[in-house]
Amino acid sequence: MKKVLLLVLALALCAGCGLSFTGCSDNVQTETKYKIGIVQLVEHVALDAATEGFKQAIVDELGADAVEFDFQNGQNDPNTCSTIANQFVSNNVDLIMANATPALQAASAATGDIPILGTSVTEYGVALELENFNGTVGGNISGTSDLAPLDKQAEMITEWFPEAKTVGLLYCSKEANSQYQVDVVKAELENKGLTVTMYPFTDSNDLAQICTTAADKSDVIYVPTDNTVAENTGIIDNICEPAKVPVIAGEEGICSGCGIATLSISYYDLGYTTGKMAVKILRDGANISEMPVEYAEKQTPKYNAQNCEALGITPLEGYAAIGEN
Q1: 206 φ, ψ to 5°?
Q2: What is the helix (H) or strand (E) element at residue 117, kind and residue range?
Q3: What's the half-sphere exposure (Cβ side, CA atoms, 13 Å) at 304?
Q4: Are strands 220-223 and 166-172 parallel, antiparallel or unpaired?
Q5: What is d(CA 95, CA 119) in angstroms, rounded to the nearest whole number?
Q6: What is the rounded distance in angstroms from the CA atom of residue 102 to the CA atom of residue 233?
Q7: Does the fold of domain 150-264+300-321 match that of domain 34-146+266-292?
Q8: Which class in CATH covers the domain with range 150-264+300-321?
Q9: Which residues of the chain have pLDDT under 50?
Q10: pLDDT in tens, 21-34
Q11: Which residues, in sequence order, are bridge partners of residue 72?
C-alpha cells in the first residue's frame, strides 16, 4: 500500500510541476512497439528476399525492439491468405505487408482501415481491379511493384533468338498479374512478326503436361513473374532442357531455376523500399492514401551460365551471369 501511495504522490508532484512522469525518472520509459503482420503467398527465392528486405529496412530505421513481426505463409492458397489477413485484423496489427498479388487481394478484402503495403505485385490496377489506375491506389493501400519493362523483355527474345518463329507463353491462369504480363508480351512479339501461343496451366498438377506441349510446339518459351512457376522451376527445367527449348524468364529466381536470360530486379531492394514506406506511415505519420506505388529503380540483364552451356548458347554481351557481383 505504501508503494501505491508513494506512486500516487509522485504522479501528483509531477503534474504539479508541469513535468511528465518519464521526466521525473530516468528509469521509467514509454516505448512504442509496432505490430506488423506479413502475409506471403508462398515461400520461394524472390518473395523470401522481398520479405527479408522489408524487415531489415524497418529494423534499420526503428530498431529491433520497436517492432514485432508476425510472418505467415499462405502456402500458395488465396483462401489461406484470406484467413491470415482476417487474423491480422482480429489481432489489430498496426500494418499489413502483403507479399504477392493474391496476398494483397486477401488483405484488401479483409480491411479498409489498417494500412496495407504490397510488394512483389506486378500491376496494382489489375490486382485490385481499379479503373483508370494512375499510380496511386488511394484508401489504405500502397506498396511496390516488381514490374520490369515488358517491351524490353519481349525484345530479349528476339535479341537472343533472332531465328525463332514460334514463342510459347507459359503461365498460371489463376494469377491475374501473370495474365496481364503475357497479354502485353504477346502483343509486342506479334508486332515483331512472331507466332505466339498462350499455354496457361491452373496449378502445379497440370504444369508438366502443359509445359511439355509448349516445348513441343515452341522455339522459345517465355514465363512471366509467376509465383507458381517460381515454386516449380524444376518441372520446367526437366522438360525444356532435354528438349533443347530455351526459356526467357521474367525474374532472376525463375531464370536461375529453368531459364536462359532475364531482365532482373533485386527483390531484396524492392522489399527494403517497402519497409521504408512502412516507417514513413508508422513513425512519421505519412498518409498512405497519398503514397504512389514505387518501382524498382534498376533492372539488370542476366543469364544462367549453366543452362546456356547445357543448350550450347553463347551469352550476349552486356549480360551478367547470375551469381556474379
Answers
A1: -110, 5
A2: strand 116-121
A3: 23
A4: parallel
A5: 13
A6: 20
A7: yes
A8: alpha beta
A9: 1-30
A10: 444 434 444 467 99
A11: 39
Helix axes 233-243, 204-217, angle to 10 degrees: 20
**What share of residues in the chain are helix, strand, coil (percent, to 5)?**
50, 20, 30
| Domain boundary assignment for the chain | 34-146+266-292, 150-264+300-321
Topology of domain 34-146+266-292, CATH: Rossmann fold (3.40.50)
Yes or no: say if 262 and 248 are a contact pair by the CB < 8 Å rule. Answer: yes
Question: What pTM did the predictor assign?
Answer: 0.82
Q: Cell numbers at residue 138, please?
A: 488511394
Nearest Cα neighbor of 53 from 127, 117, 140 is 117
Which tens digits make up the pLDDT trace of 200-216?
999 999 999 999 999 99
- The DSSP H or E segment spanning 142 is strand 141-145
Dihedral sign for Cα 66, 108, 206, 160, please: negative
